[in-house]
Amino acid sequence: MHLADFLDSIGFTDGDVRRPMLAAQIAGLIKEQNRHETAEEIQHRFDPPASLSPDDDEAPASGSPLA
């Protein structure tokens, strides 16, 4: 996929937290151009794995505004 190559070329490699965020922003721009199917493919391809989201039982880190 060309987007994956682009993200790699700017240093947003697999595991970089910026990679799915930028991909989501790009998907949003594509969706605004009525290319919904393409935007959904990008969102699906670059959606971060569930393991990157905090667990519900996990206490917030110290210094967090939720603490």
Taking Cα atoms only, what radius of gyration do you get, to the nearest Å?
A: 15 Å
Strand percent estimate: under 5%
Overall, the morphology is elongated
What is the N-to-C succession of helices and strands?
HHH
Count every beta strand, where a strand is a DSSP E run of 2 or more residues. 0
- Which structural class best describes the helix and strand composition? mainly alpha
Uncertain runs = none
Main sheet makeup: none
Mean of pLDDT: 81
- Percent of residues in helices comes to 40-55%
- End-to-end Cα distance, whole Å, is 41 Å
Number of helices: 3
Structure write-up:
The protein is 51% helix and 0% strand. By secondary structure, the protein is mostly helical. The protein starts with a helix and ends in a 21-residue tail after the last helix.
